[in-house]
Amino acid sequence: MKLSFTSACCPSNFSIFTKPSLCMNLHRKVCSSSLSSLPTLLKPQVPLFLRPPVHSATVPDLRNWHDWAKNLASSVGTRFQDSDNGPDSSLLSRELKWLMEDAIEDHSVFSQLGIGNNQTNVRLRAGIEELYNLWKQRIEERRPFQYVVGCEHWRDLVLSVQEGILIPRPETEHIVDLVADVVSDDEGLREGLWADLGTGSGALAIAIGRILGSCGTVIATDLSPIALSVAAFNVRRYGLQKPLRMQLN
Fold first, then answer.
1. What SS3 string covers 159-175?
2. Is a pLDDT exceeding 60 seen at residue 234?
3. What's the rounded mean pLDDT across residues 182-205?
4. What ranges do the domains of the chain cover?
5. DSSP 150
6. Total Cβ atoms within 10 A of residue 120
7. What single DSSP character describes residue 62?
8. For a Cys-Cys bond, which of 164, 168, 196, 246 suits 205, CB 3.0-4.6 Å?
């Protein structure tokens, strides 16, 4: 049997070596246990864009929050960028738009924010006070934006992320491209065994599993219970629990 390894980024305090008691296997054919049989480790945070829109605010209240958040972003200028290559005001303004897109159910509301007397209630996925707190965390505490909204756009995936696992980086996508190239040249590798050490969000395991299709095996391992829970959440979201089984050994 051919065995191929990939390695996702993992925090420095995590070993990349497999610990049998915390080994999560995502695979076809070999594993007999489904995702539903996994013991509950930790409940992962639900990304903002997946939350139900159970909150509401009036257009004026939402406009006040947006004006405050925009002014706070503008006040940063290039200060963060100059000190540690952090985000400048331009990037923060784009992130504010993304935050609104995740938080507001009906995006047509954006065009109504400038209408002074509009008292329409807007359905939100987070309360207005939470939106204030989230943006304070982004600016004042320098919390990474992906942790603020709870997800990262990576390749054609939108992956749940949270504190305790690293955010998938764009350059990691090249590993998936390499896998796609090698399996296209060698069908034996497509049916082989692949291991993602330090899976984190499960990004590499999920992307490679989709490339392998109905063939092969992907084993995703991590020492972090948080990572295992988040990876399992992402696997379920992409409907891989039937062709890709998981087991906590």
1. EECCCCCCCCCHHHHHH
2. yes
3. 87
4. 3-45+153-248, 48-145
5. T
6. 14
7. H
8. 196
